[in-house]
Amino acid sequence: MNIHIKELNKYFNQFHVLQNINLDIRKGELIALLGPSGCGKTSLLRIIAGLEQPSSGQIFFNDQDISNKDIRERRIGYMFQHFALFRHMTVLENISFGLRIKPRKERPSASDILAKSKHLLDMVQLSNLADRYPDELSGGQKQRVALARAMAIDPSVLLLDEPFSALDTKVRRELRQWLSNLHHEIQLTSVFVTHDQEEAMEIADRVVIMNKGVIEQIGSPKEILDTPKNDFVYHFLGETNHFSVGEQNFTFRPHEVILSIHTEKVGYFEATAIDIRPLGAVTKIVLKPKDSDYPIEAQVPNTTRNLSSLNKGDKVYFRPIMDFEI
Ligand SMILES: Nc1ncnc2c1ncn2[C@@H]1O[C@H](COP(=O)(O)OP(=O)(O)OP(=O)(O)O)[C@@H](O)[C@H]1O
């Protein structure tokens, strides 16, 4: 199923929440909607789902205008941030729920429902927990059950609203990887809302960067990181340093800088190390350039030679660098 969103606007009272949104989502693609809180990601997802009506504009599933169809007619698999499992039903009953409540004419036989639910349990790798209740599951397991439940109705589109944000970092990472692999296998057109850049970059085929109700840029993670279209995108994607000397202006990321403790080499600028923080694989060093009031943040691999002999207050030379080679 491909999705075509055309000149879509949404107002809440006077507030223009989505402004002339145009977006094409290809069949089988995993798209991330990424942007700061309040930029309209969830509103757009809810409109695609049919949970909210646009004020103007159209949505097509393949070539069919579904703007006026309700959520059931759209065959949407929807998964929310907060586990929305039924507490009084087992895992298997939760998964089969969507099929069991179908009108009699469309409902598969009891044995087909059971077979399908078991297959979905296998898919989310929880076959051994079929008879547990939600309260007996971890957060990550609950979200996998929620995903299996969303998939039970054979959705044409899967919509995920910050599905992992209530989980701790390690579980999030695992589930992210798992979702990415699963998506690779099933190739179901999916839209994923997140405000976490790392999450979007890691799993999406393409990322839609939103800000205050408009789309700022659409592209693959690489395109967006390598060629941010404007200042908003550049700044949103991470820490930025600005440094000026004479006529020269440098804008660079913390990892785009080389340090040296040796006295002035050509192209290096003098600074003082005012803070040094090991952060796992990298060490963050805050520098105060000699002729500038603005500190600069550098991140270097913690295996960098001479790093361990660098102390707060030491003189250090830095060079912004944009042309790393491998
Ligand atoms: N039902 C509503 N009535 C009025 N305003 C609303 C309604 N739903 C959302 N808004 C407003 O619309 C804007 C966009 O909200 P939305 O939930 O789409 O943003 P978001 O990008 O998903 O944010 P977050 O990451 O915080 O969830 C916000 O300013 C919000 O307050």
From TrEMBL:
Keywords: ATP-binding, Cell membrane, Membrane, Nucleotide-binding, Sulfate transport, Translocase, Transport. The keyword Amino-acid biosynthesis does not apply. SUPFAM superfamilies: MOP-like, P-loop containing nucleoside triphosphate hydrolases. The keyword ATP-binding applies. It comes from the Bacteria. One of its GO terms (molecular function) is ATP binding. Residues 3-237 form the ABC transporter domain. GO terms for cellular component: ATP-binding cassette (ABC) transporter complex. SMART domains: AAA. PANTHER family: SPERMIDINE/PUTRESCINE IMPORT ATP-BINDING PROTEIN POTA, SPERMIDINE_PUTRESCINE IMPORT ATP-BINDING PROTEIN POTA. This is ATPase component (CysA).
